[in-house]
């Protein structure tokens, strides 16, 4: 298990103190690459016997560019575990480092990050406004690429939204027209049903129910009864 204290000779930072004071300091294990690991060991300036495999170096010994940029965390202003770039080497505060110094460095980093976040949010909320060169000076190139990608995605979504809005309007108009046709057909069907009912009522005194079914085409084949035959003869000899 990696050590809880920073391996740099004159550094007094430890994981326990960091958690107690809630400092924004992370601890990183030594790289597996031998050449890179030797550079880390030399940077620690230790004269005693120690094991790099179980040791760590705190984040105060690295510059900001040594860490990978997490755009999501910066935009949302949330804490995440810092991750070093593959070729990062400790070069800062190698002669002396304490929690007081770390507090100053952390505050400075927080102010810088806050300024960067404000510029990013401002540019994202006003995508059509031209970005000033001054606002990009403090923004990391990776963030610029992320912003450009987000801006392009935003424009594509705007175009897609306009297309869908137009399609929605067309569909709405079509539904209105279809509803009018349905209402008209329903009205005609109601009138036709009323006429059929009145006709059946008028013909009941002359024709049987079976004969009416044939006349109104409700049935194609029927079996005639005595009443049907009787009425048929009556009509025949009228």
Explain how this protein is built.
This is THAP domain-containing protein 2-like. GO terms for molecular function: DNA binding; zinc ion binding. InterPro entries: THAP_domain_protein, THAP_Znf, THAP_Znf_sf. It is built from 8 helices and 2 strands. With 238 residues, it is an all-alpha fold. Among the domains are: 70 residues, no CATH class; 48 residues, no CATH class. Strands 1-2 form a two-stranded antiparallel sheet. It starts with 14 loop residues before the first helix and ends with a helix.
Assign a percent range to the helix content: 55-70%
Straight-line N-to-C gap: 115 Å
What would the principal axes of the Cα set say about the shape? rod-shaped
Mean pLDDT figure: 78
Q: How do the strands of the widest beta sheet line up side by side?
A: 1-2
How large is the count of helical segments? 8
Beta-strand content: under 5%
* Major sheet details: 2 strands, antiparallel
As a whole number of angstroms, the C-alpha radius of gyration is: 43 Å
List segments where confidence is low: pLDDT < 50 over at least 5 consecutive residues.
101-106, 126-136
Domain THAP-type: 1-93
Pfam families: THAP
Organism: Aphis craccivora (Cowpea aphid)
Protein name: THAP domain-containing protein 2-like
